[in-house]
Amino acid sequence: MKNKEKILKEVSLKDVRIDDQFWNRRLEKNHTVTLKHQYQQLVKTGRLENFKKAAGLETGNFYGMFFNDSDVYKWLEAASYTLANINDLKLSKRVEDVVELLAEAQEDNGYLNTYFILEEPDKKWTNLGMMHELYCAGHLFQAAAANYRATGKRKLLDIACKFADLIDAKFRLSEHKGVPGHEEIELALVELYRVTENDNYLKLSEYFINNRGKHYFKKEVENLSNVAGINFEQNIENFDNFTMSKYYQEFFLDENNKYDGSYAQDHLPVREQNEIKGHAVRAMYLYSAVTDIVLETGEKSLLKALENLWHNMTKKKMYITGGIGSTHDFEGFTENYDLPNKSAYAESCAAVGSIMWNHRLLKLKKDAKFADLIERILYNGLLSGVALSGDKFFYVNPLASDGDHHRKGWFHVSCCPPNIARLLASLQKYIFLQKEKNIFVNLFISSKLNAEIMGHKVTLLQNSNYPWDSTMNYKISLETSFDFKLNIRFPDWADGADVFVNGREQRVKVKNNYLIIDRNWKDNDQLKIVFEMPVKRVKSHPAVKENRNHFALIRGPLVYCLEEVDNNVSLDEIIIPGDSQIKVKYDADLDGFNYLEGKAFTEKHSNWENKLYIEKREVVYEELKFKAVPYYLWDHRDPGQMRVWLREYNK
């Protein structure tokens, strides 16, 4: 690794144990409910059966969407992460059985994709733009890397390497040119390289990244009769009757019927891109991979592009929940400041992808602003995607609803549920990072870190009642005293912080949005940090049209919303004055949460007396109390309206 000494290092999942009042129940549900529920769906919907057919163990045609293999791989990845810290013999056996099935289905030359094996074996690699062939391979590679790290077993890794070698020979080492339509394999190849130290996988990732923007999909659009899957047609969520030929042209041709590759980030070479465009999940996976390449090589031209793209996304194209991709039309980004609320797409998979990208940027840039965004997405745009029960999910995460949007147990296109599961199963890796004599604390999740710094064993215990309380307590356990730095994120929601070491207040430096406590640490040293956690009213940029004369409520990492079940009038009629004293209160319902309560007004309807218009001075206001709950909890009770952006009182 050429850039190794400059970046922050991940901590092994096995070296971090979470014991957190907020997260324990969610992670336990992910383990005991979500993984079981999703496996049952893999069986019920024919996803696993496709592998049995490909292996010759059963007869029949391919069933479902052409990228359904990827859901099996994401489930394997989530299950593998879970097994890193939990001894679950039944889950372990289930994982081994699925891995054995993949081995049976894999062709002798390494190829593994059940759609093409069963349906169009002679048209492999002919439809890279839409058929997700390389995308599915990428999820296999990520699952293999996770499984090997968690279990030390090589079988899935060997399957992945055999397929990766075939792809390398097909693309980088031959005359067959092309890039993935749906990015994913690029970042997965880097993971495979890090596990195996096989340089070919890193080179193949660079090959796909360096060749993006050369309009390879244009040739496929111009020769649709010769590509795989062109007659594929199914009824699916969000697209009704999905017809391959129709959507291929709609996604890759502009209004003048000319090629436009921006949907798949193929409009410009990556180094020339400065505005984030196209399908949001594709973009997140691509830029995660590009960041990985910079982490490995230190290439400055790619870094400059990443900085421009991140700035454009976070300053002009991101919801306050961290959600991205505002349009249903192609699940992606539109023009700057186009952030509608009720029709927001904000796909759960895009939230996962954004966390992945920001985690890589955090390792690269060593700036806690990326951890701030990880936290915002995690507690809002991502956590809203799975119900407290663990078996219902949001594909789409709007910021307003009239009561007709609800979580579902599964989807015909079900990329989001296993994506959420694998993120939660790997939550440990987002809490801490290391570099030489430094420990970086990025998320305030109660946990224990076992680390080694300059040959010294260190145990760091982090404890809090976060996100409801802003006091963070740390205990350091050492065999011998020595000097090292604790870098504690100074969150963007905090107005100030008091730092105490062994009960004595300390003055500390802030660098790159980290509080830096540099000292000779001794066994049983205690560190306490008390952040100021006020309720904040947040405004949108004036160019976000729907949010003019509205504001949102934030406390700590949480975005709050109004739900009809808590408020006795239509939410659009609630107006909150600037002098409303907003109080923080506790509700024991839904696993317990803090809600916000304050004074509000509505316009008295009876004052109109059958008039359509009256003068403003004639309007009479009635006072009431409003109740706002954390956004991630919405749609857990009686159905009804929901609003994140609230009307300002302008009497």
Automatic annotation (TrEMBL):
Pfam families: Beta-AFase-like_GH127_cat (PF07944), Glyco_hydro127C (PF20737), Glyco_hydro127M (PF20736)
Top-rank lineage group of the source organism: Bacteria
Sequence ranges assigned to domain Non-reducing end beta-L-arabinofuranosidase-like GH127 catalytic in this UniProt record: 15-428
InterPro entries the record matches: 6-hairpin_glycosidase_sf, Beta-AFase-like, Beta-AFase-like_GH127_C, Beta-AFase-like_GH127_cat, Beta-AFase-like_GH127_middle
Residues of the Non-reducing end beta-L-arabinofuranosidase-like GH127 middle domain: 439-533
Residue intervals of the Non-reducing end beta-L-arabinofuranosidase-like GH127 C-terminal domain: 535-647
GO BP terms in the entry: carbohydrate metabolic process
The protein's name: DUF1680 family protein
Organism of derivation: Halanaerobium kushneri
Lineage of the species this protein comes from: Bacteria, Bacillati, Bacillota, Clostridia, Halanaerobiales
